[in-house]
Design a protein that fits this description.
single chain; 17% helix; globular
């Protein structure tokens, strides 16, 4: 599913290398070198703006590292790489991509 160009442009203002990817019919947005408030420097992230098989969440944000300060972390292999996510639910998919990302990042504030 290709997202509207303006939504991807919004994400590229936050993470210039953002690009769409998919695996098994699931859409992801790869966010390389994303600045994260709880990580020194940057980390890679994978935004899933639709329901993912990992627990029925409407959207998920996967990180390249486990930041460990928050409970219920799990690891998933997606696009041939290990990704870490935490229990953070109720971020609806009916928003712009940048809004979905911002709501997931709120967990760390």
């Amino acid at each position: 599913m290709l997202r509207p160009i303006d939504e991807m442009e919004d994400l590229r203002r936050i993470c210039p290398g953002a690009r769409e990817m998919s695996e098994g019919g699931v859409e992801y947005i790869f966010l390389p070198e994303l600045k994260h408030p709880c990580a020194p420097g940057t980390l890679d992230a994978l935004l899933c703006p639709q329901q993912h098989s990992s627990g029925g969440y409407p959207t998920r944000l996967f990180l390249s590292v486990n930041l460990g300060k928050w409970p219920n972390w799990s690891t998933h292999t997606i696009l041939s790489r290990n990704w870490h996510t935490w229990s953070w639910n109720s971020v609806p998919a009916d928003q712009r991509l940048a809004q979905i990302l911002a709501q997931h990042m709120m967990a760390f504030r």
